[in-house]
Design a protein that fits this description.
- The protein is an all-alpha fold.
- It has a single domain, classed as Heme oxygenase-like (Heme Oxygenase, Chain A, Up-down Bundle), CATH 1.20.910.
- Helix content is 75%, strand content 0%.
- It is globular and about 45 Å long.
Length: 235
């Protein structure tokens, strides 16, 4: 069975330095309720809608990563991930359809402030910094979801049988996703050695911590939908 080593290299150091910010992200109440199958459906639909809008900007970030790359190997890595995201978008829409969310509904939904804040932060880091800065800003999403998948599947409180969110959980604890996360962790470490990560660790840690807090805010945005008086798509 494939697992990812979240303590490895530069990522492991950044994750450890993030402390409670990282713990709060991967153990967010939204995640716990997903695992137990108790998350209100309105919360999940809100998350799915905003996640699709997020992925569009996530693809832009990897295009920028390719632009910032200075070696063919790095360009290949960035464009391979970009292509994977573009290929994932129709699959995401197909999954959303099972929750009553059509493409038209999703595209008509305005970006939540949390979505805008997070995606624009990542893109700003990419524009103002170098490839390493951008890669660090992307890692809480890349590796965080893999860790969340592993935490959920190993948690005795997680319910799979009869859980309406079981497919989502299985996707992020699956071998393909974990292998991709491990490759990203190793690529970050290699890039860090070439780009002087040790001397830049304090600044890289600030980027990583901010992105981690914005990930947690994204979960909270979904959770808040359960208490919102505003109409939710497909309701």
């Amino acid at each position: 069975m494939i697992t990812a080593n979240f303590d490895f290299g530069l990522f492991g150091r950044l994750r450890a330095a993030a402390g409670a910010d990282w713990t709060d992200y991967v153990n967010h109440p939204f995640v716990g309720q997903l695992g137990r199958g108790t998350l209100p459906q309105a919360c999940f639909r809100r998350f799915l809608t905003q996640d699709y809008l997020f992925l569009i900007h996530y693809a832009r970030a990897y295009a920028l990563l390719a632009h910032k790359s200075t070696t063919l190997a790095d360009i290949r890595m960035a464009t391979a991930t970009l292509d994977a995201i573009v290929q994932e978008l129709p699959l995401h829409l197909k999954y959303c359809a099972g929750w009553g969310l059509t493409e038209a509904m999703i595209e008509a939904e305005p970006e939540a402030p949390e979505t805008m804040t997070y995606t624009r932060f990542v893109l700003d880091v990419g524009h103002s910094g170098d490839m390493l800065d951008l890669w660090v800003a992307l890692m809480p999403c890349v590796a965080g979801y893999a860790e969340i998948g592993q935490l959920l599947i190993s948690d005795k409180a997680t319910v799979i049988e009869g859980n309406m969110y079981a497919d989502w959980i299985r996707n992020y604890e699956g071998e393909h996703f974990l292998a991709s996360a491990q490759a990203a962790i190793e690529n970050l470490d290699s890039l860090g050695k070439r780009r002087g990560a040790d001397a830049r660790f304090a600044e890289l840690s600030k980027i990583f911590n901010t992105a981690t807090r914005l990930e947690a805010a994204f979960w909270q945005m979904g959770l808040n939908a359960g208490h919102s008086k505003e109409p939710i798509a497909a309701e």
